[in-house]
Protein 1
Amino acid sequence: MLLIAQTFAMTAIVSIGGIATMIPEIHRIAVETYAWMDDTDFATAFAISQVAPGPNVLLMSLVGWRVAGFAGLMTATLSTVLPTAALSVGFSRLESKLKTTPWYAIINKSFPPLIVGLMLSSGLVTAKASIHSAFGIMIAIGVALYSYHKKTNPLYPIFASVLIGILAGRLGYL
Amino acid sequence: MGLFGFGGIAASFYHVSVERRKWLSTDEYAQTLAVGQILPGASLINMSTIVADRFHGLLGVALALLGLFAFPLIILIALITTYDQFSHLPDVQSATKAAAAAAVGLTFGIGLKLAKDIIRSGAGLVFAILSFLLIGIFRLPMLQSIFGLVTLSIVFSIWQSKK
């Protein structure tokens, strides 16, 4: 349990740009290093966390659940959220002072490109874990193009894909 | 807010905090969003924390986090236990595969959109590719990689500003 807490807290602290950038690291630890879960479990957790209502942190809650039930879920959620929330409060209270230092501008400029690399890594890692058919590739490319060009609630393309997926499954294409 | 945040809580956060409750002006929203995204962790959780702290201090933060997570976690547990009971059905399996594939597509879509908005210089491109190679391809530990890249990038921008 301590290992779960430490893993999620350490990863959350460096996950600049949001929870999605934690995905490659959590996959590396939970699937590749400790084999807490396999790729199918990870892909399922990823899918469910995307359709469940609430913040995206729920993916981390689900990984915790798979590893150690309810206690794992609470540990993963709290250790992801609390350290970064504390950091936010600290930062927000000092914001006016920090903003005038040159560091602020430098960090503001140097983080964003790293976030791009992390997001694409996240896509690659989840693709390897969850896509095993030509049909899956088609859905992913379709949704990627759609969300690249249109601002949309992510739930709509996912819902459409689910309907297409059930249909394709029944026809034997998946 | 947590309850209605299907597909992430960004939209409902804006609606509640700016339009309905007027906790933030649109400008303040944009500023808080920028800060929430630069800070590590979930952007929207960071934003909610900052807003709650501003109005009600640490008690507000605790209540905000409780409010954001209590219902979603209950629903999540209900969802996953139901899923485990029906996961053998072929329809459920196809649906899960399709949802995961769609979520992969969304992640790539966001990544590409960010790339288009953010990368304006050769150096930015190099750092984006470096972080993709280290984390996505070589699968190196994130803590060390990000520390290394941030240091490198800070050194680079100091060197550049001195030129």
Protein 2
Amino acid sequence: MMNIPNDKQAAFLQLIRDNKGILYKISHSYCRNKDDREDLMQEMIYQLWRSGHQFDANYKFSTWMYRIALNVAISFYRKQTRSGVRIAPGGEIHLMDLEDRPDDNEELTEKIDLLQQFISQLGELDKALMILYLEERPHREIAEILGISETNVATKLHRIKGRLKQQFFTINKSLL
Amino acid sequence: MSTDESLGAAGLRDTDEFQQLWKAYDVKLQRSLKLNQQLLEEIHSRKVRTSFNWQIFAKLMLIGLAVGWNILLGSLLWAFHTNPVFAAAAGLIILFTSYGIAGYVMQLLLMVYINMSKSILETQKHLARLEAAIVWTLRISFFQAPVWPFLFVPAVLPAGVAHLYWTILILVTIALAVPAIWLYRRITVAGAQQGWVKKMVDNEGGKAIARARGFIKEIEDYRREEE
């Protein structure tokens, strides 16, 4: 069972706070639309809560969390209409908001946007693989999360990185 | 210009710098990402309150109704088994309904045993199977329509009207068979991308059906490379 102490709800909310960045990045990779991202984040939070009893102590906690978040994101991405609890229609209040800070590096922001754009063009499973690679998860853990062999992880990553390199090359060429 | 030079010009020396960039993104998020605590608690409590799965409830109701219908039809079959036309029609409808019940039971089991914490390929394959079960059940349910008129054929027809009666019956059967066959052929994973068929499949809980075909292929490709 998942190690949630006496106050389950407080522990769960803390878990979400600790991992908000991951949920944000996954939702941004799978949904370009702001309202959809909001719905996806809600769905991931709900499924994490709901799946607490399915936590297998034989796996690392991060493996469990990535599996749920990515499974929800892939299923959600494939749906054409959403059924989430829309608390903030029109998108005025958001679950997560990224503050514009004056010290933000514009060049860095541009590169991140470019990388996000490339990731969003990948297939649903390749996207999951790339996110896990970027999160610096070891090949063994990526293999466990996806359900494929480590060799296959290495082969696929090599291919996707090659494609990304090529895309950077093409964009750069068009800018010159 | 080589791709490595291009990456350099884009500010990335090699592909591992994608990871560095992602890390920088993470730092930026840690610094600037604000989580709306109140909204988080509200979502959490609302979701937990509304976690009752209406889809499962609806399937259970349908299974109950279908079982009830089969019992009723079975009793009528027992009572009127001397009428061969009625007996054959009732038998066929019981068979189709049993197929439908099996389909709904399969959907129910697949829904109950969905485990989002299993590996991605395993869970997505499970979800794709659920979508296929929804389509299969829907197809079968329409296929029984042409048999229905035969339930109303009396054991003995009044003399002189038998010819006319059978002519009308055959015409009604054809009128029902044509759309039933058309629907059977239409309600496929590919066909479910179209307007009203999509709407019907959506109502059956298969909103993701339109993209399922491509996705099943993607899963198969992943597995093939694995082999």
Protein 3
Amino acid sequence: MPKTPQPDEQGRLRVLDKDTGHQLSINAPSLPHGNYEVLEEPASDPISGEALPAVHGTPKKTPVETTTNGRTAENKEKHDG
Amino acid sequence: MAEPLRPAPAKLYGRENWIFVPTIASAALAPTVAEATGASSLDITRIAFADGAPEPTQNTNLVDQNRRFGDTTLAQFVGTTTYAGGQMTYQFDQQGAAASDPVKAWEKFKNTSGTVTGFLVKRSNVARATTPIAGQFVDVYPVEIGPSMPTKSGDGENAEGAAVCTFAITSDPAFKVAILA
């Protein structure tokens, strides 16, 4: 059974936003409202209690490429197979 | 004389969006498509009430110049510009199940232990259901959102569950920045 993530004393969690690749501290109740992966890292500054700043990354490439008109490109191998 | 220029109106009725974006990587505050459309962002266009939608303001001081000894007239300088936030009132269902749409804004903004930071992104003159794409221009306000409190919007027959919160603009906004790919 997956462990329920425990927010810190400030009620925050440190997460990786899988859509954007950014790591940020969020308000724990907003966890279901994003494509987040909870990280085992501090979310708040231990001295000031402020949320730690975001660390910006890049999103992982989606496995399905889209064409310039936004349609999903055909997978030729699958098509041929 | 030729007819004076009259640019076409930018019609905004049903053509404005407010989107809350938790973080933006660009120092110029230009959001990427992923940041503006990811699951962590929230388009509050149809969650915020019409009379409770974010309405940031700008106030620029006009200050009198220091009068020189012989001056008999006084001119002014442009002084400090203050960008101010305000209140935001949005739909909220007290009985809404956790993680459901009726409590989405509440769970995103409510913070009993401080504030939620992020960016309020305003897109204008694009039909509201149009997905943000690279090249569209937006205005971006860095914000800090205070705790929400349940309240109601309307009165009597049109009363609806709502929540109200206050937001502050925490640094210079960026206007007419293009969404990045």
Protein 4
Amino acid sequence: MVDYIEVLGAAKDWAWGFIVSEEKLIKSIIKKIKLPKEVKSIDFAFSEDSTGMPAVWINLHVSEDYKPSADKVNRLSAARKDISKRILEQNITSWPYVRLIAD
Amino acid sequence: MALANDLLLQATQLASIDTGKPKQANLRRAVSAAYYALFHLLIDDGAASAGSKVSAAAKARIRRAFAHADMKTVCSQYAKASAAGSMNAQIAPLLTWPLASDLKNVAETFVTLQEARHQADYDLSTKFSRIDVVGYIDITEIAFADWTTAKTTANAKIFLMDLLLRKTWSRT
């Protein structure tokens, strides 16, 4: 007879190991990127997006700015795209959504 | 095309309409307009690819046939695709590899904007800031520029057909 508790436990271990390995990979990718000076800190979290696709939410924390200069917007957009591109190149299961969070 | 450009302009105007602290309603509508700008850019060119002899009414029907969820599925594959093996097995042989970075960027931006638009329209727990919204508009403008370059290629024609037909023409 199948021990469902054991199967469930193994699945949980596998899923946890999977998240930990993706987390490590994302950390190492972010570490290699030179972020613009406006980025005060960065964090990320895994969950599903609105359509149920596995996703990683990468938050770049910046100061509130009601009139950002074009240069600043370009720098932050470039960082946003660079992070996404590098993560997508690694073929990570979770889709990278990079957001600018104004604190 | 005119609608796509007007929506992008509207997004820019809404993002900067408030002096001082921006209203969430304006920022949220700006994000939504940016997404729909890219959506209409793609479906207009998809309908246009049917040819100049097709009536305006027929093109309108073709535009209506594009589905947001299917387009996201297709775009997420193109954005991630590094080689034929990473693409749907029925579609991969129709494409020339590797995919150009401008086409991949259009696809990636579509997925990003669709999720942002969903948050803007339905998720009141998410607070939008002007810098974030202006950033979404900036990446939309980049995607528009990339599409101008990409759309003349054979891969872009397949991409447009894939956006419309994925569920049926990817069958084995």
